[in-house]
Design a protein that fits this description.
The structure holds two protein chains of two kinds. Chain A is an all-alpha fold. Chain A has helices at residues 6-43, 59-69, 80-97, 115-136, 140-171, 176-182, 193-207, 218-221, 231-256, 267-288, 294-323. In chain A, helix 1 (6-43) packs across helix 9 (231-256), helix 1 (6-43) runs parallel beside helix 10 (267-288) and helix 9 packs across helix 10. Chain A is globular and about 65 Å long. Chain B is an alpha+beta fold. Chain B has 21 helices and 15 strands. In chain B, the strands form five sheets. A five-stranded mixed beta sheet of chain B has the order 1-2-5-4-3, with helices on both faces. In chain B, strands 8-9-10 form a three-stranded antiparallel beta sheet. A three-stranded antiparallel beta sheet of chain B has the order 13-14-15. Chain B is globular. The relative contact order of chain B is 0.13.
């Protein structure tokens, strides 16, 4: 057993951790599809899926069986290569972004100095999924959806980055663990309240969740960019959306709610509880809000959110300079 | 009661050489105008084809004008036997005009001979004549000279024959079995492809290439099988062409082969969210032909159920309207309320969506015991729900942003396009037939007609919440003051006759037997009845040739002109605005296509 040096052990542990987190994120995304339907049912005076298994708990299994065995149809008028590539990008980019999220002080995949920047990069790549999927489908509704996605991304990526710069400035690092550690005394939601508001909005926009579901806008574009997708390819877009939801929730928890920090309970439980609360918020948004018109959405991004993040950044910077001990 | 007498007197005055007929005679000469006595409650005047445009221009531009082309259709007269006092005619086109300032109607008829089925189009006078003329061409093969797009409207573009002609069979069994080959399918699909040039549209402007987006007939927000082809510049709608007919079931043709009595269930299915509301104009028109006056109890029951279905329909509207604006929850709440309404409806009529519960001369049954308690429960439940909808949704900033000043039109535009009902009242005109021409005893109820001012998508939504409140008021008065008495009129033509009296002696037994087997025989005449239905003014224009069946049943529905008006309202807006507008119109395709 000479090869089992401490270093190999470390690698093995890191690999298994990564695998567990990957599968966990996937599974949570899938479970959310059912949880959302049950929650919507609860708020809409109806049951939601409650027939398969106790309290509908096995609905997920039934859905997976159905979606896996569905005919995987590629329309003859579609651009084949891009059509297949799009959902892969959609799901992979969001899953990869999970790497940077520390679940507990010891659990996490990657502990990078550029942590947060990696998320921005992945969020930037993610939009290509929608763009390519919508364009390659050869469908006018899909094209309109892709067009909307592009416009929306342009408006929201800009201030998404800026909205987090306050957090970075306060923590003095892009590293996620440093950011959590910096929240020991006070969660960043207090000093960075406006940063939180704008990042929440941008986060919803990244996941294309209601009311930022302009690219698919069922009532208008009849599902928009993924209108031609079926079977598991649609499933990847679909689960990808929920993984995005989990990702953004976990990120918000890490950046603004002190990550795993909390008294009495083990760190992971705190992290999970906070993330779950944000996931419920995502569903609640969908249940309660109408959809704004998409040009209004753009102007809201440019006229309200962008100035707000800039002011927030200025004020944060000024406060740090004022409060900084003299001589540093 | 005094009001009823005055309305009836007024309508009779119109028939007997009213001021409009005199004015028309002065204009066109004594020979050019021929009056026909009918039970329609309005002057019916025959004029020659050459005088048509002159007469319509005169009526449209006179002081207190007839600004609304309420209806336009045709009758195939070739098999009609009893035509005393009418000019020779194989096909008759009729123009039903309405004057808002006079609160009067007039009907112009033009006789055509079989070899010469052609007359001038009147689109330049009344823009909404467009679809009506296309429908007449589609159904009767009558050509309107000068019509820019005289294509099939309700039937598929490949259709052979003119369905409403008397020599066209009404039953599928009279046709060869239907087969669809692959080539046939291809042909049909090619025929449905949109050709911009045929509609005078350009494929590109100087700097943009337009996208032609086919929205429907299967689209989540099309409210049924409705297709609208959009000419898009980005997401801006440059122009659009609504295409209807996917829900056409030939309700008018069926009227010509069902007995007067057995046609009632077909009326339910015309505006399928309105239930018994559809029965009302039909039975009222039949009762005019049969000269039946119904007891007060019947009137009150009819009013009560009509208002209940109005609430039911408006609730469906509200849920789907908000759904189209992207709010997914309200529709579930309004359906909870609708279920409460259905519990009352079920208890009273024994049915939910299509009770077909009104009868010629009455209603099907008396009210069940304890109906008032049930109804009171619903009346107590609703107000707080309506307040909630208003607070949660109509006060919501996003809803307001999506609907305020969106798809707005003025009262003049609305009248020019034949818009009626809540959509017209949202522009500021309080035209509500329940107040303007009370029927079924509406004059005895205390209620208001809600009116908005901007005529935009928001007002069309808001006004329906107010209307539900008023309907609740009316129902409350019905519950409090339901008159005692019979639920059927004591009249030989009441159908079916009261069963209790069937076994009294041989006369009543024979009457009962004849009426449920053949159906009642109504004297030859014409009658017309208009009511304020859930979506606007619904009218049935019945022609009897003295038989057990209608000779011609013309159904004028409110949704038809509402859809026709879409391009005028929506040009220059975004796709999202079109969806908001479609949601705010409140149409069902069965009410459009019939």
């Amino acid at each position: 057993m000479s090869w089992l040096t401490p270093m190999v052990m470390e690698v093995l542990i890191a690999m298994s951790q990564a695998l567990v987190i990957l599968l966990g994120a996937l599974l949570l995304g899938a479970v959310m599809t059912v949880v959302e339907r049950r929650l919507l049912g609860l708020w809409q005076d109806r049951y939601g899926p409650n027939r398969v298994g106790p309290f509908g708990s096995l609905q997920l299994v039934a859905d997976m069986i159905k979606i896996l065995f569905k005919e995987d149809w590629i329309p003859p008028f579609a651009d084949r290569a891009l059509f297949v590539l799009a959902p892969v990008i959609g799901m992979a980019s969001l899953l990869l972004a999970f790497m940077i999220i520390p679940l507990t002080p010891n659990w996490g995949v990657a502990d990078w100095h550029i942590g947060l920047l990696f998320f921005f990069a992945m969020a930037g790549i993610n939009v290509y999924a929608v763009l390519l999927g919508g364009w390659s489908s050869g469908n006018k509704y899909a094209l309109l959806g892709a067009m909307r996605a592009t416009a929306q991304t342009l408006s929201y990526e800009v201030f998404m980055g800026l909205s987090l710069m306050g957090v970075v400035a306060l923590a003095g690092s892009f590293n996620m663990r440093d950011i959590v550690a910096a929240q020991q005394g006070l969660w960043f939601i207090v000093p960075q309240f406006f940063g939180f508001c704008t990042f929440l909005i941008a986060g919803v926009a990244v996941t294309h969740r209601h009311p930022f579901d302009q690219p698919e806008a069922e009532q208008e574009l009849a599902d928009g960019y993924h209108i031609e997708y079926a079977g598991m390819k649609f499933g990847m877009f679909f689960i990808g959306e929920y993984i995005g939801m989990v990702l953004v929730s976990a990120l918000i928890v890490t950046l603004f709610f002190g990550g795993w920090l909390g008294p009495w309970l083990p760190p992971f439980v705190w992290f999970a509880l906070k993330t779950a609360a944000l996931l419920v918020l995502f569903v609640l948004l969908r249940a309660s809000l109408p959809r704004p018109r998409y040009d209004r959405m753009m102007s809201f991004g440019w006229r309200v959110c962008l100035p707000l993040t800039l002011i927030n950044l200025l004020v944060t910077g000024a406060a740090i300079l004022l409060l900084a001990p003299a001589g540093t | 009661m005094s009001q009823t007498t005055s309305t009836t007197a007024a309508s009779r005055e119109g028939v007997a050489d009213g001021p409009i007929v005199i004015a028309l005679k002065q204009r066109l000469g004594e020979q050019g105008v021929r009056e026909q006595a009918t039970l329609t409650g309005m002057p019916v005047v025959w004029i020659s084809r050459d005088a048509l445009c002159e007469a319509l221009t005169f009526l449209r531009d006179m002081p207190e004008p007839f600004e609304v082309l309420f209806d336009l259709s045709a009758i195939d007269e070739r098999l009609r036997t009893q035509r005393e006092g009418m000019p020779e005619s194989d096909f008759t086109i009729f123009y039903h005009l309405l004057s808002v300032s006079r609160n009067r109607d007039v009907m112009l008829k033009v006789a055509l001979r079989e070899g010469d089925l052609e007359l001038p189009s009147v689109i330049s006078l009344y823009p909404n004549a467009d679809w009506y003329e296309r429908e007449v061409w589609d159904m009767f093969g009558i050509v309107f000279r000068g019509h820019p797009h005289l294509y099939r409207l309700l039937m598929p573009p490949t259709w052979q024959g003119y369905p409403l002609r008397k020599d066209y069979p009404a039953r599928a069994t009279e046709f060869d079995p239907y087969t669809l080959t692959v080539e046939g399918q291809d042909r049909e699909q090619r025929a449905l492809q949109f050709d911009p040039e045929a509609w005078g549209m350009r494929r590109e402007s100087d700097d943009t290439e337009f996208m032609f987006l086919n929205l429907g007939p299967n689209h989540p927000s099309a409210h049924g099988a409705f297709r609208i082809v959009l000419q898009l510049d980005g997401e801006v709608i440059v122009d659009c062409v609504p295409d209807i007919g996917y829900h056409h079931r030939g309700a008018e043709k069926m009227g010509e082969r069902q007995s007067w009595h057995s046609y009632i269930p077909y009326t339910d299915r015309v505006d399928y969210t309105g239930g018994v509301v559809n029965n009302l104009p039909y039975v009222l028109a039949v009762e005019k032909l049969a000269d039946i006056e119904v007891p007060d109890r019947v009137n009150t029951i009819r009013v009560m159920l009509t208002e209940l279905f109005r609430i039911n329909s408006h609730l469906l509207f509200l849920g789907t309207y908000l759904q189209d604006l992207g709010a997914m929850s309200p529709v579930f709440y309004t359906f909870t309320d609708r279920q409460k309404a259905y519990e009352v409806i079920e208890a009273i009529t024994g049915f939910r969506m299509h009770p077909s519960w009104f009868r010629i001369g009455g209603v099907a049954q008396d009210l069940p015991q304890g109906w008032d308690r049930l109804m009171q429960g619903f009346l107590d439940w609703m107000p707080k729900r309506l307040r909630e909808y208003e607070r949660a949704m109509m006060d919501n900033a996003i809803v307001r942003d999506r609907t305020r000043h969106i798809a707005a039109y003025t009262t003049q535009e609305a009248l020019a396009w034949g818009v009626t009902g809540p959509n017209l009242r949202a522009t500021g005109l309080d035209l509500d037939l329940r107040k303007w021409r009370p029927y079924s005893g509406y004059e005895q109820f205390d209620f208001e007609v809600p009116v908005a001012a901007n005529g935009d998508a928001f007002d069309r939504g808001w006004i329906r919440i107010e209307e539900m409140r008023q309907s609740l008021r009316i129902i409350q008065q019905c519950v409090d003051h339901m008159p005692a008495g019979d639920y059927k009129a004591d009249h030989p033509l009441t159908t079916p006759p009261p069963r209790e009296r069937m076994l009294e002696h041989i006369e009543t037994l024979i009457t009962h037997f004849l009426q449920v087997s053949w159906g009642p025989v109504l004297e030859a005449n014409e009658s017309l009845s208009m009511i304020e239905a859930t979506k606007g003014i619904n009218g049935y224009y019945l022609t009897s040739d003295g038989s057990t069946m209608s000779y011609r049943t013309r159904i004028r529905t409110p949704s038809f002109p509402h859809l026709q008006q879409i391009p005028m309202v929506i040009r220059g807006s975004l796709v999202s605005d079109l969806i908001a507008h479609l949601g705010s119109i409140d149409f069902v395709m069965a009410d459009v296509d019939r």
